[in-house]
């Protein structure tokens, strides 16, 4: 028998090739007049074109978004928005830029228009994260949910294949954990399985032909669904480990998700068999952990923490941090499970198949 609560978040999604042309219209629909355009340093040229297209609607540009949203960067961006009289923010890019927009909204309440160029999915969530003194803290607040999201597959055609794959598997992680979330529901289960399947089709096609617009559209569609799951239900062990590794050891976000996910699924496999069946079916495999590992390995993504900047000497500290304040998980992983988490991290560090 079903027994669940489902909350629908108020959000507008504009999806389709060329939909960036609707940005000015969407800003008007928010009742806003002056937009601060946000981006990473690498995406400044693209952001400048967006700002130029807005003309007088562009209040200015902030190009210092970085991973894990350091609190100092967030304060700098909030101060600039205030100085320029911006009444909304346009976040162009991946999770780093969206996260910066959320940090501005958290304090100021400015509405956000998110324009994702990766498959991170955070644009669909009221979840924010800020890193201070080497620790990443996350929370939920309806003020940070982007009011409008513009998904334009044209903008991701030049996303490097490697980042496309890791970003896509990052999105798959949201849906995978949603399937065994404490507050899961049938709507999210459907979205999760469809989102995983779309990305499983898209990523090999993108590796074969990076500018394939149909594959890019499929990947963005999958990322939208997976992001919707992330925004609606709780996450578990996998996300706790990735927040620990990313926030405390400054590892690259999408790559961490890619490496850790097969091992987190293996840890939870016996405690969440129905979720594992749905993940495996969406990926076209028999074992969910093995299918995720193969998707990464076969498409050139990293499968070892040692290859993305983690030091062996830090594994013990990572295990300690992860179990000190654990998220809910179908298989508990508090201090009593510290050795099992340490072993999981070792396998992920070495790049071994999940066990």
UniProtKB/TrEMBL annotation:
<dbReference type="GO" id="GO:0004022">
    <property type="term" value="F:alcohol dehydrogenase (NAD+) activity"/>
</dbReference>
<feature type="domain" description="Alcohol dehydrogenase iron-type/glycerol dehydrogenase GldA">
    <location>
        <begin position="10"/>
        <end position="153"/>
    </location>
</feature>
<dbReference type="GO" id="GO:0046872">
    <property type="term" value="F:metal ion binding"/>
</dbReference>
<dbReference type="InterPro" id="IPR039697">
    <property type="entry name" value="Alcohol_dehydrogenase_Fe"/>
</dbReference>
<feature type="domain" description="Fe-containing alcohol dehydrogenase-like C-terminal">
    <location>
        <begin position="165"/>
        <end position="348"/>
    </location>
</feature>
<keyword id="KW-0058">Aromatic hydrocarbons catabolism</keyword>
<keyword id="KW-0520">NAD</keyword>
<dbReference type="Pfam" id="PF25137">
    <property type="entry name" value="ADH_Fe_C"/>
</dbReference>
<protein>
    <recommendedName>
        <fullName>maleylacetate reductase</fullName>
        <ecNumber>1.3.1.32</ecNumber>
    </recommendedName>
</protein>
<dbReference type="InterPro" id="IPR034786">
    <property type="entry name" value="MAR"/>
</dbReference>
<dbReference type="Pfam" id="PF00465">
    <property type="entry name" value="Fe-ADH"/>
</dbReference>
<dbReference type="InterPro" id="IPR056798">
    <property type="entry name" value="ADH_Fe_C"/>
</dbReference>
<keyword id="KW-0560">Oxidoreductase</keyword>
<comment type="similarity">
    <text>Belongs to the iron-containing alcohol dehydrogenase family.</text>
</comment>
<dbReference type="InterPro" id="IPR001670">
    <property type="entry name" value="ADH_Fe/GldA"/>
</dbReference>
<dbReference type="GO" id="GO:0018506">
    <property type="term" value="F:maleylacetate reductase activity"/>
</dbReference>
<dbReference type="GO" id="GO:1901168">
    <property type="term" value="P:3-chlorocatechol catabolic process"/>
</dbReference>
């Amino acid at each position: 028998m079903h027994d669940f609560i489902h909350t629908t978040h108020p959000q507008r999604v504009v999806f389709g090739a060329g939909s960036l042309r609707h940005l000015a219209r969407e800003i008007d629909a928010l009742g806003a007049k002056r937009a601060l355009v946000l981006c990473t340093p690498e995406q400044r040229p693209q952001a400048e074109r967006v700002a130029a297209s807005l003309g007088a609607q562009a209040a200015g540009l902030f190009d210092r978004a970085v991973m894990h949203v350091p609190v100092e960067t967030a304060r700098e961006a909030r101060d600039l928005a205030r100085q320029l009289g911006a009444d909304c923010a346009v976040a162009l890019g991946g999770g780093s830029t969206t996260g910066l927009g959320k940090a501005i909204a958290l304090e100021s309440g400015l509405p956000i228009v998110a324009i994702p160029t990766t498959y991170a999915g955070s644009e669909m969530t009221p979840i924010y994260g800020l890193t201070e003194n080497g620790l990443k803290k996350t929370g939920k607040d309806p003020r940070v949910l982007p009011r409008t999201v513009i998904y334009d597959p044209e903008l991701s055609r030049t996303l490097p294949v490697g980042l496309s794959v890791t970003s896509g598997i990052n999105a798959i992680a949201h849906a995978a954990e949603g399937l065994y979330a404490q507050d899961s529901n049938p709507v999210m289960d459907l979205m999760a399985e469809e989102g995983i399947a779309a990305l499983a089709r898209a990523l090999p096609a993108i590796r074969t032909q990076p500018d394939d617009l149909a594959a890019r559209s499929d990947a963005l569609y999958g990322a939208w669904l997976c992001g919707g799951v992330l925004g609606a239900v709780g996450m578990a062990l996998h996300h706790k480990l990735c927040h620990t590794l990313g926030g405390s050891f400054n590892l690259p976000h999408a790559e961490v998700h890619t490496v850790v996910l097969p091992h987190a699924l293996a840890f939870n496999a016996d405690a969440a068999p129905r979720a594992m069946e749905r993940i495996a079916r969406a990926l076209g495999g028999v074992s969910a952990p093995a299918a995720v590992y193969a998707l990464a390995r076969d498409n050139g993504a990293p499968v070892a923490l040692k290859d993305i900047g983690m030091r062996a000497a830090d594994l013990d500290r990572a295990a300690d941090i992860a179990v000190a304040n654990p998220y809910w998980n179908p298989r508990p992983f508090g201090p009593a499970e510290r050795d099992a988490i340490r072993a999981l991290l070792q396998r992920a560090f070495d790049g071994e198949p999940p066990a």
